[in-house]
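Supplementary Methods, section 5.1.

A reviewer requested that the exact input to the structure prediction be made available. We therefore reproduce it here, unchanged from the version used in the analyses.
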Amino acid sequence: MFRRILIPLAVVAAIAASSRLAADVVWTPQEGWKIEGGMISNMNPTDARNALGFMNKARAAEEKRHYRTALRNYKKVTKRYSESVYGPVAFNRTARIRLLRRQYVKSFQAFQEIITRYPSTPMFTQVIGEQYRIACALLDGARSRGWLIFPGFRSRETAIGLFETIVINAPYSEYAPLSLMCAARGHQILKSPAEAIDALDRMINTYPKHVLTPTAYLQLGQSNAALVEGAYYDQSFTKEAITYFEDFVILFPGDSNVGIAEKGLADMKQVLADSKMKVGDYYLKYRKNYKAARVFYNEAITDYPDSPIAAKARAQLTKVDALLAAQEKMAAAEASKPAPQKKKKRFFFF
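The structure derived from this sequence is encoded token-by-token as follows.
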């Protein structure tokens, strides 16, 4: 008996759950808010009536541009009836009012409530898009509404954090790779090349087939090149830049920016070869270590064989070979000399 009853109850519960998910809240000026295609979840008639009343008051105030009143009523819904079908709608309207009032971060946070509380909402992609546009506005210098009529400060650091939130919210959406590229641009604007490199590196590794991946490779080469301080300093960034420029040329030979990548590659090879030349000159001039000098001159030629640096390295190798030959000849002559005889000690007795 109980089994026969439980099965239909489970089916009814499943149908109820699916109808709640399918419910759509629609507003018209004539009828106000009404639910189409579903029902209100777990609400008694009194709560449903109260929630609808707050929603209608909020939207009526919104239409009259009485935004404070609208926000106050939408807040009552999000606090008291967030689990109802009205919850995501109230957060959505709150976010849009905040956006109209240039309260960008608060608008983003209201949209974030929808993503966090209602991850299966049909508005998901739309909300992510709105978050992306807010972050872009802040990155491009938009200022949130400040005190009275005064604008707030630019918030590019905040924009970068918002882009990272979008990547976490929707890593497989079209907005995730775009957000990583924008985060990298923000770090570049703020003169933080290491952070820009990190964002670009995540972009090419996570989205290797995205249309912006070639641009990310090129920017990685350029960002590493910007950290190169010259031939006298550590060359780790030079080598990284060479790697990304080479990858770009190999992976995207038909790209319109191949010429830019080839020039960047040539410049970095020049710096690396010049660095090897300077180390070789040091061993030649100050240490008289001709074998070490020879190693570095050969590396300079290998790093950039068709460059003026390579021609200089070959000229220095000729000099080093002559000095090595003279050094070996002198060593051989010294070795061929008879060993000096030891003088016998004389002892005197008194």
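The longest helix spans residues 308-336. These observations are discussed further in the main text.
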